[in-house]
Every structure is written in structure tokens, then in C-alpha cells.
Amino acid sequence: MDLDSTGPNEVRSAVYRAALKLRTLQKLCQMHLVSLQDLRPVLNTLSSSGEPVISLAQADVQQYLEDLFQNISHELPDDAVPEATDQTTRLLFKLFDREHTGVILLRSVEAALIALCGDTLSAKQRGLFHIHLISISSSDLIYLSG
């Protein structure tokens, strides 16, 4: 969309549509009930290997998401844990496994889960900035040791 040739109403409308789509995905995956604090144990477990680039198989993603939703199951409707786990896993692989390899990058999972969580925009921004800093420091270590 060329911002120079569009009016503010058209831009506002596009932003609103994008926000509605994001909210729909968030609710479909039950991520609106998940906070960054809920995500922290899962993200720490995933990134604990110290490897700069980590690929996750679908079964691993499914297991981590199941653990996440089990931890917040008191906030979910009955029998929502399997559905939320399946929907979120499908969404992540549809977004990030375009070649159908069966693996996706950890950084993609982290960024998507942070973006979809139900926390405030400023908290999400801090979370995304944090994973960016970690990826920069990991790549600096590779460069220095290589």
C-alpha cells in the first residue's frame, strides 16, 4: 500500500482489519489467555541449549505448547487444551514451514507466541526486543569464535 496516494481513512481501515485478523487468530489459539509470564518457562526451556539457530520438529512444538496450555488450563474452557495446542501448532507451521520440512526455527516460534499472547503492546515489544538482543549476542559469539 502506497501511503502517499492513500488517505488516512484507508490506512486506518487497513490497520483495523489487520488488528481484527490478529485478534481472531489469538482467540482461535486461546493465546489471549496467555501472558508473557506464562510463556517465560516454555521460552526458557526452548532456548536453554545455547545454540544460535535451533530448529524444532512439529512434535516438539506440540509438546511445549501442550505444557504451556496445561499450566494455564484453569483459565481455559473445558477440553480446550488439546484444541488450543493443535490450533497453535497448525498456525505456526502454516506460517513458518512453507517448504513442508516439518521443522521451524525457534526464533520464529518465540516471536509468534509473543505477538499472539494476551499481554500489553509495550510488554510484547519488550519481549520481542529481548529475543532480538539474545539473537544478536549469539551471532556475535559465533563470529568471535569462528
Automatic annotation (TrEMBL):
<feature type="domain" description="EF-hand">
    <location>
        <begin position="9"/>
        <end position="117"/>
    </location>
</feature>
<dbReference type="InterPro" id="IPR015153">
    <property type="entry name" value="EF-hand_dom_typ1"/>
</dbReference>
<dbReference type="GO" id="GO:0099536">
    <property type="term" value="P:synaptic signaling"/>
</dbReference>
<protein>
    <submittedName>
        <fullName>Dystrotelin</fullName>
    </submittedName>
</protein>
<dbReference type="InterPro" id="IPR011992">
    <property type="entry name" value="EF-hand-dom_pair"/>
</dbReference>
<dbReference type="GO" id="GO:0045202">
    <property type="term" value="C:synapse"/>
</dbReference>
<dbReference type="GO" id="GO:0005886">
    <property type="term" value="C:plasma membrane"/>
</dbReference>
<dbReference type="Pfam" id="PF09068">
    <property type="entry name" value="EF-hand_2"/>
</dbReference>
<dbReference type="InterPro" id="IPR050774">
    <property type="entry name" value="KCMF1/Dystrophin"/>
</dbReference>
